[in-house]
Write a structure and sequence with these properties.
Radius of gyration: 22 Å
Strand content: 35-45%
Number of strands: 34
Shape: globular
Helix content: under 10%
Number of helices: 4
Strand order of the largest sheet: 10-11-12-13-14-21-20
Largest sheet: 7 strands, antiparallel
């Protein structure tokens, strides 16, 4: 009736007020945010059970989805990755992992939730083609494949672009690679186990049931530990075979991927054409560049790990592929720098370390820009210490700027033009939380937006497969 009568709302007709993309021209904040046109951010709310799509140029939430609608009892959205889209306002796909609420900060925040929630991986779709935007589930990948993993997700780039997406989990110590179809197909799966007596790590291919084509690892099946190792607790008592697999990251130029292993401070470099492990990087300062392969039998590779000088948590490649960086934490709190251009990862050597974080600040997440002129890191700390975000110069491997953005800082991700860094802080204790935008070159905090959702991750929707190299694919 209002539209038929030409009712005026906020200076425009009702039809315009209901448009899928808001025109903020003339509003008080227009000049501040218009520079971010084309940047849509996905913000999973770890304790709100939601994911929302934010148009940073207005700013406003374009759409949101509560995973309780997908049947998860008390959902905990964990990590996220977005497929490229030439026009994210019209639509894009993304992937979301889910973990049981027993996992995050369980000793501090949610012991009463241990028996609720679920491991899940979803392919999701944002649709902005009509007058009402929406987010929906495309595929419950955990149900489709029979393997449910709840930590990092990353989409293939470079030689692996338009092919694969990888999922990982540190309670089950498994990695799953699938196709990016709406009905995904299993490509390869890995499991990691540690023998504490022999001090050996085994990486093996695991296979779905031949009769069903599916695994039997849905829900809590396959768990080694009752909850994910909390930040900074990679050496916590647990199943002695547990290694706390963290993520899979993709080389931007070579057919290689890396399995990140938290507890033992190492990264398995895998050939993505044959899916064979080629090297086990030993990232600690004072350790050899690689741990030794002691035997290979069929689809199983065993490496000797005589000692662990430090765990790690997060690692990946800079956008150019020239360097592989690993965040060593808990014991050393430094960032190892490997030169990673050679197709043979056994030739990769540690060239430098980013240092100076002390004993209570842990290098955690890594963020890239398209031209690799800077690398950004989250330096996390337990309360009452806030932690901070820092900028590193890859020519000197020195910290050249840092920001105390807020308590419990998490991921860094660049805008599509590479001019700005977006970062979230969590508020996992129901305290301060929000999104901060930093000028990558002038170091000015140019915007701060509130959010009550408690973010552990976020991502900017990339505009192309090339742009995906600076997103949550090469680094986590």
């Amino acid at each position: 009736m209002a539209a038929g009568a030409g009712l005026v709302m906020g200076g425009g007709v009702a039809g315009k007020a209901l448009s899928a993309v808001h025109d903020a021209t003339g509003e008080g904040t227009y000049e501040l945010f218009k520079k971010f046109k084309g940047n849509v951010l996905l913000l999973p709310g770890k304790y709100s059970g939601t994911v929302s799509a934010l148009d940073l140029s207005v700013p406003e939430t374009l759409a949101w989805y509560n995973y309780g609608r997908a049947g998860v009892d008390l959902p905990i959205p964990h990590h996220i990755a977005a497929m490229p889209s030439a026009d994210p306002y019209k639509g894009f796909d993304f992937y979301q992992t889910m973990q049981p609420p027993g996992a995050p900060y369980v000793n501090e925040n949610s012991p009463e939730w241990r028996d609720r929630g679920d491991f899940k991986m979803y392919k999701m779709r944002y649709d902005g083609s009509g007058t009402q935007n929406s987010i929906s589930v495309v595929n419950d990948i955990s149900a489709t494949t029979g393997m449910a993993l709840g930590v990092h997700v990353s989409i293939g780039v470079g030689p692996n672009a338009e092919k694969y997406v990888a999922f990982a989990d540190g309670q089950k110590d498994m990695v799953l690679i699938t196709t990016i179809d709406d009905d995904p197909k299993i490509v390869k799966a890995f499991r990691a186990d540690y023998d504490p007596n022999a001090r050996e790590l085994t990486i093996q291919h695991i296979f779905p049931d031949a009769s069903t084509g599916r695994f039997d690892y849905e829900g809590r099946k396959g768990m080694k530990t009752s909850h994910e190792a909390m930040l900074g607790e990679e050496l916590m008592p647990a199943d002695p075979t547990a290694v706390f697999v963290d993520a899979w990251t993709w080389h931007p130029k070579l057919p290689l991927g890396a399995i990140l292993i938290r507890r033992h401070g190492c990264c398995v470099i895998v050939n993505t054409e044959t899916w064979e492990p080629l090297a086990l990087l030993s990232t600690a300062k004072g350790a050899p560049d690689h741990f030794e392969l002691v035997r290979q039998q069929g689809t199983s590779w065993t490496y000797s790990i005589p000692s662990v000088l430090t765990p790690l948590h997060e690692a990946g490649f800079i956008t150019s592929g020239e360097f592989f960086l690993a965040c060593n934490n808990v014991l050393q709190n430094n960032i190892a720098v490997y030169r990673s251009e050679d197709p043979d990862p056994m030739k990769w050597k540690k060239e430098a370390f980013v240092e100076g974080f002390g004993d209570k600040y842990l290098p955690l997440h890594m963020g890239n820009v398209p031209d690799s002129r800077w690398v950004f890191f989250t330096i996390w700390a337990r309360k009452p210490n806030n932690g901070f975000i820092c900028k590193v110069d890859p020519k000197t491997w020195k910290v050249v700027a840092q920001w105390d953005t807020g308590p419990d800082p998490h991921t860094c991700d660049c805008t599509t033009d590479g001019k700005y860094i977006t970062t979230v802080y969590s508020g996992n204790q129901s305290g301060q939380s929000g999104l901060v935008v930093i000028d990558a070159d002038t170091d000015e905090i140019v915007a701060r937006l509130p959010s009550p959702a408690g973010h552990h991750d976020h991502v900017v929707v990339p505009e192309s497969w090339e742009g995906l190299k600076a997103s949550r694919s090469t680094s986590v």
